[in-house]
Amino acid sequence: MLEQPPLPSEPETGSSYVYDEQAPRTSPRSIMLSVGMLSSAVLLAVLIVLPTPYAVNSPGPTRNVLGEHDGTPLIEISGAETFPTTGELRLTTVSGTGGPGFPSTVRDVVSGWVSPTSVVVPVELLYPPDTSQDELDETNNAEMVSSQENATVAALTELGYEVPATLVIAGTVEGSDAHGKVEKGDVIVAIDGITVPDYTTLLDHLAGVEPGSTITLTVRRHGENLDVPIVTGTKDDGTAQIGIFIDPSFEFPVDVKISIDDIGGPSAGTMFALGIIDKMTPEDETGGKDIAGTGTIDVNGDVGAIGGIRQKLAGAKRDGATWFLAPSSNCDDVIGHVPDGLRVAKISTLHEAREAVTAIGAGAGDTLPTCAS
């Protein structure tokens, strides 16, 4: 039988003892409070990473089209002399969540609401329903390739080169007069008896056609030329259109290679074209300035509107740009949203953009038209 040891006597001076005492019992209230706090923490953690039906757009990275990225030049030119430059021409981008494969979390949405340079909108406003990530990537990549091709054609044409093209009909607009008259695979040979050696000739002729009038399109089909009368329609800008989709095959007199793998979409076209021009001309157009910009471009050199202009303005300012070239069709979204220290010039054509860069480089940017004017 074990006996309980006697309690220690009064400790000597400088000595200490630890007494075993029965721990107080935890109350049911404390247990419930602890469980509740733990559950709330777990629930909050789940909510933070839970996908939401919103898309968040924020300023994305910029790239100097005259420089390199990861050791690779963004623009390489062979078959023509190139010249150095002292400034920068920056394409701008938007970083987004909420698209297929990249859902926005509660944390993303809250951060977007708090940030003055981000925008939060319902997903369906930016992305078509039932679109997969692969489909979206394929579309963005195709638009980027087309943008680079258009930029090359527009830049070389601006520099005085002729860029021959085979204009193959890829389809027709349903409801147009061309629908059912021309076929996929037809090659455009002439319009109203005028030979069409390139895309620019076709567009220039259509610019003088009254919408609703009839043009004669000569196409080559199975080795034979056919004259097809077509009643023109009206584009959004009020000019005439044939109602066909064209898949052009260009014969470039100069080899231009654009390398950018991590960015998609068509909005970098104008900056690519300016970069090509800057590299192929002896003048130092930028004059050492850091100029950013955006805008789609077609083979005729027309600059088109883009999305996310406010985020692109913020990204340009963040990365050191002092000037920004904005499509004139985006001016409504520019006014009132220009960061301090960034100046904006509006452009509608590649030629205007080139003149703007030259003016900025020469210190004459004050003469340029702005969205506010």
Kindly list the characteristics that best describe this protein:
5-stranded mixed β-sheet, Pdz3 Domain, Ribosomal Protein S5, domain 2, alpha+beta, 373 residues, 28% helix, globular, 4-stranded antiparallel β-sheet, 26% strand
Description:
- This protein is α+β, with helices and mostly antiparallel strands and about 375 residues long.
- Helices cover about 30% and strands about 25% of the residues.
- Among the domains are: about 60-95 and about 145-160 and about 255-365, Ribosomal Protein S5, domain 2 (2-Layer Sandwich); about 165-250, PDZ domain (Pdz3 Domain), CATH 2.30.42.
- It has eight helices and 24 strands.
- The protein has a five-stranded mixed beta sheet with strand order 3-7-20-23-24, sandwiched between helices.
- α3 (about 135-160) packs parallel to α5.
- The longest helix has 26 residues, at about 135-160.
- The radius of gyration is 32 Å and the shape is globular.
